[in-house]
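Section 3.1 - Work completed
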Amino acid sequence: MPAKRASKADVDRVRQFNRFYTRVVGALDEAHLETPYSLAEGRVLFELAHRTSPTAAVVGAELGLDAGYLSRLLRRLERRRLIKRTRSPADGRESHLALTAAGRAAFRSLDTRASDAIAGLLEPLDADARRRLVGATETIGSLLGAPSAKGAAATPAVVLRPPRSGDLGWVVFRHGELYAREYGWNQHFMALVARVVADYVDAFDPARDCCWIAELHGERVGSVFVTKDPTRPGVAKLRLLLVEQGARGHGIGRRLVDECTRFARDAGYHTISLWTNSVLTAARKIYTEAGYHMVKEEPNDSFGKKLTAETWEMPL
């Protein structure tokens, strides 16, 4: 039986909510989240941050934007040197889009501000109210056909974002626990991770260093870092790649490694290097497929096990 036409009262209530919510999230602000960018420009940056060199047509289809309007948005972002175009080898009429280093920095700022703004909405609520609010968003998405309601298992909601408060402590904790459980490594490994994280914070340069936290359906499931090599000018180091056991198989590790490669190349490094161990077969497979090559191996028993340490590199 076909659904009845929506009543005027129902339409008015949904429109009232839309007016309220667009005000709450600042959708009408010319400078979204007190940045130089509009909400539409921020959404374009978000799509490019979470896709691998999409075409304008793909971005436009995802955002439901008119081709002419999207073209104007892209030109503005290109003039600001936030995005770059590469002509498609398959179709010379199309270009692939990607963020520049400045674009990624702009996205990270927007992403952090957006998360902080939503946290500001949630934090005054008690745990029950938060659950009701989050549940209501899921209900709205499900009823209106949001992608997460149409088979999230087939297309997991994977997000790579910059670290927020508490994330770096989580990186140390999860490395220590996971490697102890899976490989029997002792506290010396956790101490090494803590030193790497501390050095990253102490020597952080946003133009040369970066960290990504991977989330799957809103939960932290991975991490990776790019840092400068203090002993080798022009060489970046990929460090602390981690993917939680339950999140493997979704390509998260490869995405994290690809982000490191792109960042290092755009930051002007000529080589990216990493240190690993021969027992980490899944990670080594990712490195091989990404174009890294082992350049050195040596015995290593630093973590309570007899291991073979390896250094891998890739020219950029």
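Second construct:
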Amino acid sequence: MLPTANLYSALAFAETNRLFDRLEQIYAALPPTTCKMCGECCADPPPAALIEYLHVYRYIRDRLPEKQPELLEKTVAFFYLELVEPQQHCPFLGADNRCVIYEVRPFACRLYGLINEEKSPVRRDREALAELAEKYREEYGIVLPQAVVERRTPACSDVVPAGAPRISARRAENLLTALLMLDAQIVNPELVLERITMLPLPLHLAITVLNDGLRARRFEVMKTYLETGSRALVDKYSRRAAGFRF
């Protein structure tokens, strides 16, 4: 959503206008939860608002300097393989099944397990994904694996609210609206209404890290991977991204 040239002005605006404080208030309206940390819900990162991405970016910059190269490589790999490799997981999931950005995880991650996924206001748009798959087939000759097109975040009965009741779908929708209103202060509100500011966190970060040319090679990388199974291009661009400076 935000290339590097626009990122820091957006960060400065959010900090000056205390948008991160308001974001934390929205998060605080959700009951805290506990779970078994199995990592199954991290197979398909849900959409995150632009303000949430800025919040996470700042956290990685300030709190996780030693993890930045690894996160960048995994994020770029996710950008290229998200739609062609069914076994992808969120780049922010550690080897121990712990989220490395848990403290600043997005609204959708905090909401998971609190309401039925079919009623979640931040679930993946399955119809849009099917339409995207058809577009890729017709325009680029790329046939997305059915396992990707039909991928679903599994329901989980292990998420337990800690000392608070679960919330209603209407309450969740209202909180999401408040969240998107923060985005509308940063970018054109029309983009927010169309949910263009809502992307999985790895894609937000990849757009910042990769230049226009490397982003445009996504189709080439996807097609090569599907036809040959080779990760050579993925690894090449991932290593290059690891030198990005926050």
